[in-house]
Design brief:
Layout lengths: L11 E5 L4 H12 L3 E6 L2 H14 L5 E5 L5 H14 L5 E4 L17 H16 L1 H6 L3 E6 L25 H22 L3 E7 L15 H5 L7 H13 L9 E4 L2 E3 L8 H16 L1
Parallel strand pairs: 1-2, 1-4, 2-3, 4-5, 5-6, 6-7
Antiparallel strand pairs: 7-8
Helix pairs in contact: 1-2, 1-8, 3-4, 4-6, 6-9
């Protein structure tokens, strides 16, 4: 049961894709921990159902819903404005949203949707909410990564916005690698403002994504051996809340331990390149 805490004293968590398999279980953990929640999703009706379930679990917390298509940068900016209008500080931002498609789809900005949702959205939302994160004095930003990026030998910056010839799963893996590279590059600057950036690989889980036609057939065949969503959600939660990670920022967490990320993530030229590309993407 959540203890009685003044609303102003409660920690505030912003979560994208909150009603997904991992998001659902993560929000239960945060609600039970007494966080006020801001849920950013594409489907308002599904979010309402989730809010009702979370309110029954933790009736004393405040839960807000913001509807946004994270492939649309204008929608992301509007969502960030609504968050900042409501809260002057944010203690935790979880960039959980992700997409894997079985064909090339182009966003309203003219970019591959994998890149928009998996890379641009977490970058842009984090940048836009930076003042509110800094106001918390010690805020944590979690990016949900993927083991898929280990399948990529190098980060192809020139193919992120439009991969050209579509090869199933490749744009997803590239976009996840790009996100990890960007957040590693941003970590030192954000840490100066008391904002810790962490990437966590929740491992393969039995979620809707693991049955998606955008993932390889061999991957779907092993789904029954994947962890339940509760396990992946706990790994995300622990990446933010476990005291053993202390004040570490710019870290990659896998199976509850800080591990070395794929080699391209640590290359300075890749870090500089992805930040330049993201700046160009979000300001053009």
């Amino acid at each position: 049961m959540v203890s009685v805490i003044d609303k102003a004293e409660r920690k505030i968590a912003v979560v994208t894709a909150s009603y997904s398999g991992l998001g659902t279980e993560l929000c239960k953990l945060l609600a039970a921990d007494g966080f006020n929640l801001v849920l950013i999703n594409r489907d308002a009706a599904k979010t309402l159902i989730q809010i009702q379930e979370l309110s029954a679990l933790a009736p004393l917390i405040t839960i807000s819903s913001i509807t946004a298509d994270l492939s649309n940068q204008a929608a992301i900016r509007d969502a960030a404005r609504k968050v900042s209008d409501q809260y002057s500080r944010i203690d935790l931002l979880v960039n959980n949203a992700g997409v894997v498609l079985d064909r090339l789809q182009i966003s309203s900005q003219g970019n591959d949707v994998h890149y928009e949702v998996n890379t641009v959205a977490p970058y842009l939302l984090t940048m836009l909410l930076r003042p509110q994160l800094a106001a918390a004095k010690r805020a944590i930003v979690i990016v949900v990564g993927s083991s898929a990026m280990k399948m990529v030998r190098k980060l192809e910056l020139d193919r992120l916005r439009n991969p050209g010839k579509f090869k199933k799963f490749a744009p997803y893996a590239q976009s996840k690698l790009a996100t990890a590279t960007a957040f590693f590059a941003m970590a030192a600057s954000f840490a100066k403002e008391g904002i810790l950036l962490r990437i966590v690989d929740p491992g393969p889980n039995q979620t809707a994504m693991s049955t998606n036609q955008g993932v390889p057939g061999w991957f779907r065949m092993f789904r029954r051996f994947f962890a339940l969503p509760e396990i992946g959600a706990r790994r995300i939660y622990d990446a933010a809340m476990d005291r053993k990670f202390g004040e570490q920022s710019g870290i990659y967490i896998e199976r509850g331990k800080v591990t070395r990320p794929p080699a391209p993530v640590l290359k300075k030229e890749m870090q500089e390149g992805i930040l330049e590309l993201l700046h160009e993407t979000t300001t053009s």
